[in-house]
Amino acid sequence: MKSTYRFVIIAVFISSLLLITPQYAYSEPKPFIIRTDKEVYSIEETIHVCGTVPVVLEGVPVTMQVFNPRNVMYTVGQELPNADGTYDFDFKIGGGLGIVGDYIIKTAYLGRNAQTTITFGDLTATTDGVRVEFGGNVFYLPMSLTNGNIQSYNINLNNTSIVFSISICETEDGEFRITLQRALIDARNNDGIKILLC
Predict the structure, then answer these.
(1) Does the N terminus or the C terminus of the chain have fewer Cβ atoms within 10 A?
(2) In total, how many domains does the chain have?
(3) pTM given for the model
(4) For 132, which DSSP code?
(5) Element housing 5 (H / E)
(6) Is 158 exposed, middle or buried (0-12, 13-18, 19+ CB in 10 A)?
(7) Which domain holds residue 144?
(8) Is it the case that residue 32 has pLDDT exceeding 60?
(9) Domain shared by 38 and 116, yes or no
(10) Rg of the chain's alpha carbons, rounded to an integer?
């Protein structure tokens, strides 16, 4: 009889072990996040890109690619994520590829991808001025550009010219205005200054 009770107790114990389903820990994978500190940037502003990666593998960088509005790669970079999974990347837009419009910032890490979009250029108006020393005088030339940005300017006193490099929104007309003082552009002696836009 004792052996029967032992057998029943062992059978109950084994069957209770079989009925217990293992509980596995499960958590949703962390998202791969990318964001910028602003949505619209103008010339000379630093674009700050930051985010988090789902898991950190030592020595594996986050790869970033920035494409301009013509879908041409503007810049590329790599940054190692911090121990907490955060990463950041800074860049500025300018030069020949730095045109006004929407830029796509793509990131890749361990086979996962994320992207965001920013707008470069104050599409309403950009106002600035140029300081010119010419003929022993100093002139300040106020200027403005709508639907674009004044990328740079170069004053060449040897051939008495100012060359402006501008970028405009491809979908809308823009207007460039500059105020020139009479003393600067006086042509009586054929030595006035010339303005060239490119």
Answers:
(1) N
(2) 2
(3) 0.51
(4) E
(5) helix 2-19
(6) exposed
(7) 130-184
(8) yes
(9) yes
(10) 32
Rounded Cα distance, 101 and 63, in Å: 23
Instruction: Tell me how far apart the alpha carbons of residues 63 and 120 are, in angstroms, rounded to a whole number.
Output: 21
3-state secondary structure of 11: helix
Same domain? For 152 and 180 the reply is yes
Kindly report, residue by residue over 42-70, the tens digit of the pLDDT: 777 889 999 999 999 999 999 999 999 88
Please determine, for residue 150, whether its predicted confidence score (pLDDT) is greater than 60: yes
Q: Is 177 helix (H, G, I), strand (E, B) or coil?
A: strand
What is the three-class DSSP state of 2?
A: helix
Distance from C-alpha of 119 to C-alpha of 41, rounded to nearest angstrom: 6
The contacts found for 184-192 with CB under 8 angstroms, 24 or more apart, are 184/132, 184/134, 184/135, 184/137, 184/139, 184/141, 191/135, 191/160, 192/160
Torsion, Cα of 83, 74, 65, 147 (10° steps) = 90
Q: How far apart are CA 81 and CA 55, in angstroms?
A: 9
| Residue environment code for 98-136, b if the CB has 16+ CB neighbours within 10 A, otherwise e | bbbbebebbbbbeeeebebebbbbbbeebeeeeebebee
Sign of CA dihedral 31, 36, 40, 44: negative
Q: With cut-offs at 50, 70 and 90, classify the pLDDT of residue 126.
A: very low
Structure tokens at 191: 């030595």
Q: Look at residue 1 and tell me if it is in a domain.
A: no
Residues whose CB falls within 8 Å of the CB of residue 91, separated by 6 or more in sequence, listed in order: 46, 47, 49, 66, 75, 77
Q: Which helix (H) or strand (E) holds 101?
A: strand 101-109
